[in-house]
Amino acid sequence: MPVLEVRDLRVRYNNTGPEILRGLDFSVEASDFCAVIGPSGAGKSTLIRCINRLVEPSGGSITLFGEDMLALNARDLRRMRRRIGMIFQEFNLVNRMSVMDNVLSGRLGYTGSLRSVFRLFPREDVEKALELLARVGLSDHVNKRADALSGGQRQRVGIARALMQQPDLLLLDEPTSALDPKISRDVMSLIRDLAREFDVPVLCNIHDVQLATEFCNRIIGLQDGIKKFDGPTETMQKANMEEIYAMEVL
């Protein structure tokens, strides 16, 4: 059974506006590292944010871990979001907080905001955060403020924070767009290795097609809110790329 099933997904931001997503169908399996590619404005980021209802679909269905995401009330939605780790384009860290506190914020769904204000995290959470920071190469930066880090280091904090949730699905929203090419490759390699290590599937909106083909086992190609390709990375041909990016000069 797929971890995620999307059927006839549609999104428009107002009643008279155009559809941003137009009838998308796809699924994500437990072993997938799935890239969503396409030109700017294709609906990639909107799609990622629909999965955990940061954007509300206007039609269709999203079944996650066997549950209908669009039927969940506020309480059940909070419960489900605990199971979804998200890594953002702009890192989404609290700059004035330390690296350690930013990583521990990944446990807010379990600990609660009041306990977090007073840093009353269980010992096992602190130990887990230290292990993750070591795993992403930031053991020497635990007490630094987040705004004292480089872009690549900040994204590594974001990765560790997402994994602190012990997620069953990772959503990546342009995780490398603010990074230079070498750091981008390092970050994608780290995410792939950690996804395998923690046995968690990934759905990744990414602008860099080369990174998508290098690190992802499956690709979904969007153009103007419509799916143009969906299959294993090795089956994507030049003709598929030309169709996905038909409205752009490659």
UniProtKB/TrEMBL annotation:
NCBIfam families, per database record: ABC_phnC
Domain of life where this protein originates: Bacteria
Taxon lineage: Bacteria, Pseudomonadati, Pseudomonadota, Alphaproteobacteria, Rhodobacterales
GO molecular function, one term: ATP binding
Keywords, ordered alphabetically: ATP-binding, Cell membrane, Membrane, Nucleotide-binding, Translocase, Transport
Family matches, as Pfam families: ABC_tran
Name by which UniProt lists this protein: Phosphonate ABC transporter ATP-binding protein
Domain ABC transporter: 4-249
One GO location term (cellular component): membrane
UniProt-listed PROSITE patterns: ABC_TRANSPORTER_1, ABC_TRANSPORTER_2
InterPro entries for this protein: AAA+_ATPase (IPR003593), ABC_transporter-like_ATP-bd (IPR003439), ABC_transporter-like_CS (IPR017871), ABC_transpr_PhnC (IPR012693), MetN_ABC_transporter-like (IPR050086), P-loop_NTPase (IPR027417)
Keyword Nucleotide-binding set for record: yes
